[in-house]
Amino acid sequence: MLLLGILHLYTVDNLSAIYAQANSIAIEHFDSLFTKNNVRLDTQNNNLYLVFAGPYPASPTSSFGHIFVLAKPKTDKPILLWDAFDFAAIQGSSGGIGFFFKGLFGGISGRFRKQPFYEKIREYTFLESRNLYLFPLRFDQLESLSFQDFLLDLEKKDFDYLIMNDNCAGRIDSVLREAGNRPKSENSALVFPKSVIEYWTDPNDNYLVVMNKNPNQEDVQILSEINKGELSKEKLREDEKAILLKTNEWYFNRRHEHLSPEEKMFMDNLRIEIAQSQNSRPSPTLEKESGFYLHPNMLLGCGIKNAIRNTNTFSVFFRSGIHEFFEDSKIYPSRDFLGIFKLEVGLSANRMHLIDLTIFDQTSLTPYSSLTGRASWKFKAGISRRYELTHSPPGGGITVGFGLTTSVFTSEMTITAMIRNELVYIDNNNILDYLGPEIICINNFGEYFTFSGNYGFFRKVDNNFNYFEMTNSLSANLLKNYHIIFEQKTYGKENILGLRIQTYIF
Amino acid sequence: MKNNKFIILLLALITISIGFTGCATIMSGTTQLVTISCNVDGADIALDGQFIGKTPFTGEIDKNGEILVVSKSGYKPFNIALSTSIDAMFWGNIITGGTLGSITDFSSGAAYEYSPSNFYVELVAEGVSLIEQQKNFEIKKFAMMNMSDIAVDIANGSGLYLESLIHLAGLESSENSIAVIAEKLTKSNGDQLVFGKLITE
Prior knowledge:
The complex is a heterodimer. Helices cover 25% and strands 39% of the residues of chain A. Chain A is an alpha+beta fold.
């Protein structure tokens, strides 16, 4: 566990942090894409673009974003056919854990690839639900050509790949420096996609690609009702059929399984029906997005905690992680929470004590439907003090949970029922295992307030002792980067009230 | 007390195994149904050296397979490196078992996945350069992979996907070109593979 802790500390210290907050874009219904005035990209004066793919919470290796370069050719090619240059790891046959560890310490290769842009759009849309943002590079024509020449030389050659520095950002930056005749970057232990974007472009001058946008829960609901026979395809308007086609395609690609003959026939017929109709909705093209910004992904917070039967403590915490539940409530299919490192320390008049040292914490709550069928789950590892404000010893442990999530009332509200098992090591005579049900309820009230509640009745396996655990928190989301959170916790007989403020840093 | 310790140890092992390995095979099995189509019918398909069938092929293949070879006399053999798609879901895939994912072009020819678990392989005849075949291949690939968007664009009379297909095919940007593409799409009955072939004729 200690080794794992050190490893993760090392990882966090070196990973880049970037998060593109674009709630106003990411949560849109398909409909809204077709009512906006699509703006063609002004490509006349730019030849190269850095493309930033938003972070993908389900994968720690791509949690902090990915960049690649898009090159406008001399000929008047539509943008879908432009060349995208990418540096990516070659997965080989490594499993998930193996891939991650080799990415940290060496042992995997990466390769520059050239692909048409439409393939990149498909990859990010179907597999990872990520938006793409284009930043014009400040390169003249000669430098752009030089960059492409360099990359053509490098293509199909293997290079070392390391998550921390020899990553997509580091490798692309090196080639840009060669082509742009800039000084080589210092031998940094870490390279941030964010820093590369900021060095080479003006982050305020960006464009958003919205092609093949991911559906939201309402879109999926239509598909679900069609599949269940509760809604007839014939009753849909032409524009709704276009949404159904795109949602279906997204769903099948995401599921990544062979279509049954019935599913294939349904899709084939739908394509024909749409192609033969008129005035269906246009495919979305490109939009310039003014509200977009790259925001930091580390959190720093402080607050006061009060134990009803005990003392007051001032606590300070630092957390690395990109997703809170209140940031992406409407993105389908998952509501993800990902924290890679958290340290919380309590300070009182005469002592300082550790409250929480979380190495990894991820919860993925996918509303269950006939389409997704995916279990919700959580995984957490770290050290924490159960009774936060007392002198009880801290325990190190692993928590796993599996369950199902429903979103029956509104898309803003999810309820998850989970079986949670938590193994805690305190000392050789105190190894505890909590096993019990847990209910997680998350409700967003517009953009500004989020309620989160966890309720569980746990049984200590070693001595048959049962106890109730409850956490309720209400978050007020102020401005873009600040949150005030009121929290109430109950651990058996212990009750704690807390008020904290947190902000993004780095 | 001994019993309790045994239970705790057992739960610990279960916890750790679920957390780190995910019981992948229990949840989704070790094989996956795939279809492999080719511009040449009757080509042999071998997975890691074992013959599994001929094109067009539909059947279960091992998710842990690494090299797929498509070959036929008179054509250059085509090797595809298969890898399990862990980038897409990572931890989620560890839990659910992962799926057959990206393919890497190892040698001559080209292949792509135009629909989930549907792969298309283009074999190049001996003596024919890949460059000669490249243009048709690019048109076919674009049409097959983006058929749904093209259908939506046809309904609207314009759109980036339609515009891109017209550009790739070297057609004039006109209503007549759109009508030709629409006719081929209708003739294909909505099937991506048939549309790909028709569009390059």
